[in-house]
């Protein structure tokens, strides 16, 4: 999928420096960072959804435990 990404000048310069340091293209660095972000927050989302299901499924037991 083609995509145009507009970055502030300072972030673009930092990205270029980091890509050069790592010996990869700016695109590869953006893909890596995006993948890491999505993996981190998809795990967080999965845990939140599981907690919500448990709270719903065991609402009565949790209420009794709170008494």
TrEMBL record:
SUPFAM superfamilies in UniProt: Ribbon-helix-helix
Q: Which InterPro entries match?
A: Arc_rbn_hlx_hlx, Ribbon_hlx_hlx
Q: What is this protein called?
A: Ribbon-helix-helix protein CopG domain-containing protein
